[in-house]
Please model this.
Amino acid sequence: MADSDNYEVEDLLEDLADRHLITADEVPGRYRIHDLMRLFAREQAHTQESHQEIENNIHRLLEWHLQVLEAGGPSLHSWVRLEKDSLIAGVLAATTRGWNELSWRTANELAAYHSVESDYVDWITCNKAGLISARKCESLEGKSLMLGGLGQASRQLRKFSDAQSYLRESLQGFRDLGDVHRCAQILWEIGKTAASQWDIPQAISAFTESVEIAQSVGHPYDAARAFHALGHLYSGIGRHKESLEFFEKELEVTTRNDANPRYQGFTYQGMAACLASSSMSEQSLDAYDKSIAAAREGGDRESLRIRLTRKAKVLESMGRLTEAYSVHREAIETARVDRDASGLIWARHNLADTFVREGKMGDADSIFSQIIETGEVEGDPGALIGALHCWGDSYARRGETRRAIELLDKAIQASRDNEQEQNLIEISLCRSRVEENQGAYSTGLPYTLEAVSVARSYGSARILAKCLKRLGALLEKLEEEKDATESFEEQIRLEVLMQQWSEALISANKLSSLWEKLGDPSKAEKYAASASEYSAKSIARGSIFPEQIEK
Model:
């Protein structure tokens, strides 16, 4: 900014520090300036320098920002954290001044930092400014990069419609540029967004094309990432045999390319979850043990804690409670040793859930009370909401309705205050169920309606289908059969979209029965025919065989 070499600048800074006009920071090479001194310096600049000289100084500073970002280095992340506000302001200033390439290139370099730090709002701020600049200077590369970043950040913020729009335009830009590698990466993002919406056909199409491109250009880890996503997707729709095949392909790629244990650990974790969902508990335990060993070898402590907790749940499902409690406590101890406050709450919460399921309410109460009433969850609204929800649900199971309502209402309010949409949906359904169990169907209805309303904006077909199913059942109990059919018909459309044929079969039979009761035989026959179709598709999906998971 001073348009001088480093030695001269160091002398100037030391002289200012000696005069107590600036103060050396704890970080070597950085200085702090008092707000009043900053104001005085700004006034002097406008008095003593021309407008063009000031603009030249700013331009040199922003160019230096970009040079540092592009140079990289081991201390870059720490530097960006310290200078984040100035860097973001620099992107905006560059856009305002028409320094267009400087704007979008700086925004693009900052994207990696925003992603790692989960600074999605700042990411969107920078990339929107960068997009304006890229369009002004007619840079197709810049525009495609900015749109891709906006899509990624929007997906993380669960703004799925925005994400799809940005990503589709970004993909077209990279296709026009002939940049097939970036096409593969954007297709993966499109697949993840579609999967979050439970748009299964679009997700499968995007992930499959991503694999094909990654393999054709020799990027094995991009292919492995898409195989992993396909494994989770197929497991989620009950196609466990195909799911395992994709995880095996992922494992083959990572093994062939000498991947570090971290990669293989995630593959085994995906396999384990798939096997657990298909009631193959012993095989699931084996896969979890391999994923846990990989986490230990790679020093991935967070994944170690998560996998221990999930292994404990499999042991619990097998009735091996002593082992389950032991593994839960190892997860808790892992978080405690790492001083991972959020992880510690999560691990203890899962142990409390196990106590609830086993009827050990006193042990569960002790843990929930300690989590909530001792202030452990301060600054972690998600942990507070989760603990209130599960504790309230445990009281509902005991038939202690008043205490259940008290805790669940607190959880609902905290979810609203913190814009925790998925929690709000789940807790509202739980609150409605408490009323339904008392026979107060009309009192429970507003909670179910709120869950449906929030689910519509949330963007997940799976969650909305679940809410519609609950709404339809509740309307049926209230003898509002015509309204119930509307809810079930919307539900079945989503189940077909998600290729959830077993669920669609149940919904079709329900609708056939309701329309017959309402005196409309043509619609009853229509849904009976649909039930036959969904039954055939469900059977055709097949089963899973042990040889598929032999390694």
